[in-house]
Write a structure and sequence with these properties.
Length: 128
């Protein structure tokens, strides 16, 4: 009897969460479609590239927070019009931290120098 109750509760919770996620996805898709339609509308009055850019920047300012865009307006624009930016490389560079050596302009020693230093301080026995 307890096993039946366990399976019933498990199935009920899983079904409920699946339904909830499906509804969330549907709402998100509708929201994205609405935002896209608003972008299309904002482009309708633009007559040249500069006006398109201004319309895009205004749309971005109004909607980027709702869309949780991880990219700046310039990054999106450059990528869209054929710029050299890559979304993956942008994320990688944002995550990197500058070390003190990088800041001071010090470069890492090359492998030959490292081996030389190891040999100077090593008795040849690498076991400790």
């Amino acid at each position: 009897m307890a096993k039946d109750r366990y399976l019933e509760i498990k199935e009920s919770v899983l079904d409920h969460m699946q339904t909830l996620f499906d509804e969330m996805e549907e709402e998100m898709a509708m929201s994205h479609q609405e935002k896209y339609a608003l972008l299309e509308d904002s482009f309708e009055n633009a007559t040249d590239e500069d006006e398109l850019r201004v319309a895009f920047e205004q749309w971005y300012a109004e909607h980027s927070e709702d869309l949780n865009l991880d990219f700046k307006v310039d990054e999106l624009w450059d990528k869209a019009v054929g710029g050299e930016l890559s979304y993956d490389s942008l994320k990688d560079t944002e995550d990197e931290e500058e070390t003190s050596e990088d800041f001071l302009g010090l470069k890492e020693e090359d492998e030959d120098d490292e081996k030389k230093h190891k040999n100077e301080y090593s008795d040849g026995n690498d076991e400790y």
